[in-house]
Design goal:
Strand content: under 5%
Radius of gyration: 21 Å
CATH superfamily of the largest domain: MFS general substrate transporter like domains
Largest sheet: none
Helix content: over 70%
Structural class: mainly alpha
Order of helices and strands: HHHHHHHHHHHHHHHHH
Number of domains: 2
Length: 408
């Protein structure tokens, strides 16, 4: 039986936002903590830059698998169970990794961790959709997405700062402690589902639902945009420590870790996007956000550290604003099976993470920072032109069909 969801005025609304926000913060802190450690790991294990980045890209691959598998399972067995299990199981690899002498084993453990980390994003948005009143769900979603950025910022800053001052093993131990605290809070405070209805669809029916979305041109464009946004964003941030630790900047890892405070501008992006979308068309704001992202990326080519820092702040704001609006577009565009449409968007989103982490690595090997940035500049510019042209064609097609139907 359906029970009215929590509203903004309800205490439980804020408890849900806090619990899921903390779960999200740990998830993304754990996921991105390896990013600033890549230069250290490259030296410690005497490996190539591309191989070191495997600890990010392989985690992303398993997270994508986890999003699909755990998304299916949470539809059948409930959201809260998978959120709690995700946090607990994701802590365990970080307890083991500091003792490993083989980088291959670390990559394997990160693969396992990527799968377990998927439990939170696979279930959290569905939980919000079921347990939060429709009028308040957009704010809850925006705040949840903001904690994604906050978690990524915390993971990068803590890992980079502690690794420089002490060692990289201690940085992972601190994230373990943070995870244990979050787990205790979530176990105590996250309310049980009131409106969850187990779906007894077969695996084949779920795949049919996915194939339906993959035949929708408008959704395919949004999935493609998710990939492009993440390739641009992750590609820039993954190779940033290598760039800033080299001449002419020659910054220490500790100093580089402070630069991740630029994520604070990303934290503002999602709520601002939610507010603006109620006043202007979502499509127009999304275009502006992508242009802001492009400007931010371009600034990182400058020889001045100040201009680079400003560019990174602009990049974070543009990316998280565009990401929030694209996720909202997927939900609006899907006429039914919205959960599977959102899952597909997240899959596309993390394909972008994997691509930005490792697949563009040869550009760094060949042309260093300029190779990375020229690519991450060209990609969103080309796709934005393609996106606007394609959306116009789809709108004209729908208008023609509507005209024919009324004429008949």
């Amino acid at each position: 039986m359906y029970t009215k969801g929590y509203e903004l005025k309800d205490k439980q609304f804020w408890i849900v936002v806090m619990s899921l926000g903390l779960a999200s913060m740990f998830t993304f802190a754990a996921f991105y903590s390896f990013q600033p450690l890549l230069p250290v790991l490259t030296k410690s294990y005497d490996i190539s830059v591309s191989y070191s980045s495997m600890s990010m890209s392989i985690t992303t691959v398993s997270l994508i698998i986890g999003l699909i598998v755990l998304g299916f399972l949470s539809d059948r067995n409930g959201r809260v169970l998978f959120i709690k299990l995700s946090i607990f199981l994701s802590i365990l690899p970080f307890i083991i990794i500091p003792f490993m002498d083989s980088y291959f084993i670390i990559v394997v453990l990160r693969f396992i961790q990527g799968f377990t980390l998927a439990g939170v994003p696979a279930a959290a948005l569905a939980y919000i959709g079921e347990e939060i009143d429709a009028k308040s769900s957009s704010l809850a979603t925006a705040l949840y997405i903001s904690t994604n950025a906050l978690g990524g910022m915390i993971g990068r800053i803590v890992a980079g700062f502690v690794a420089e001052r002490y060692n990289w093993q201690l940085s992972l131990s601190l994230i373990v402690i943070f995870g244990i605290i979050v787990l205790i809070i979530v176990l105590i405070t996250l309310p049980k589902s009131k409106n969850f209805i187990s779906r007894n669809r077969s695996f084949k029916e779920d795949l049919i639902g996915f194939s339906y979305h993959l035949r929708n041109p408008a959704l395919l464009l949004m999935f493609g945009l998710g990939i492009v946004l993440q390739v641009t964003f992750t590609g820039t941030w993954t190779y940033l420590p290598f760039h800033l630790s080299s001449p002419p900047f020659s910054l220490s890892l500790e100093t580089i870790s402070y630069i991740y405070f630029a994520y604070a501008f990303g934290i503002l992006g999602a709520p601002i996007a939610s507010w603006l979308s109620n006043r202007f068309t979502l499509e127009k704001i999304r275009v502006v956000a992508i242009l802001i992202l492009i400007i931010g990326v371009a600034c990182t080519l400058h020889a001045s550290l100040l201009v680079v820092l400003i560019g990174l702040c602009i990049l974070c704001f543009g990316f998280f604003t565009a990401h929030s609006l694209t996720a909202a577009s997927v939900s609006r565009t899907a006429t039914h099976l919205k959960g599977s449409a959102s899952s597909l968007y997240l899959v596309a989103y993390y394909i972008g993470v994997a691509s930005g982490s490792t697949l563009i690595g040869p550009l760094w090997d060949l042309w260093k920072w300029q190779g990375i940035i020229y690519f991450t500049l060209a990609l969103p510019i080309i796709y934005l032109v393609f996106l606007q042209f394609s959306l116009k064609l789809i709108q004209n097609k729908h208008a023609n069909l509507a005209y024919r139907n009324t004429s008949e």
